Amino acid sequence: MLRPANRQHLKQRTQAVYLHSAPEEVFRRLRHDRNRPLLQVPDPLARLRELYALRDPLYRESVRFWWKPGGLRWLLW
């Protein structure tokens, strides 16, 4: 997802869906999971917020649909 070519491929050649979750929700679900290397840090919620800030715009740029609690949204691009 971090490479522009991958995002372009997803947008142009697939029907990708972004399953959106806020960092706090992801933390709630994964707080006891010790098999997530990126979260084995002193403040995993802060790390999730950093990752979200970096990746959320990239995901939105790369998909046609995104799912957020409350309903399916159509992305216009």
Structure, explained:
The chain is of the alpha+beta class. It is built from three helices and three strands, in the order αβααββ. The protein has helices spanning 4-13, 23-30, 44-62, and strands at 17-19, 65-68, 71-74. It has a three-stranded mixed beta sheet with strand order 1-2-3, with no helix packed on it. A hairpin with a 2-residue loop joins strand 2 (65-68) and strand 3. The longest helix has 19 residues, at 44-62. The mean pLDDT is 87.
Quick overview of this protein structure:
With 77 residues, the protein is an alpha+beta fold.
Please tag this protein with its features.
77 residues; alpha+beta; three-stranded mixed β-sheet; 3 helices; 48% helix; 14% strand
